Amino acid sequence: MRDEAGLPESFLSPLFEPAVARAIASVVDATGELEAAEAALIARAVASRRQEFSTGRRLARRLLAARGIAPGPILRDDDRVPIWPTGITGSISHSREFAVVALCDASACFGVGVDVEPDEPVKPGIERHVCTSAERAWLDGFDQDEAERGRRVKLFFSAKEAVYKAFYPRVRVFWGFHDVTLELDEAGGRFRAALPQSADRRHAEGRFVRGHGTLVCGVLAP
Ligand SMILES: CC(C)(COP(=O)(O)OP(=O)(O)OC[C@H]1O[C@@H](n2cnc3c(N)ncnc32)[C@H](O)[C@@H]1OP(=O)(O)O)[C@@H](O)C(=O)NCCC(=O)NCCS
Question: Does the model's pTM come out above 0.85?
Answer without folding.
Answer: yes
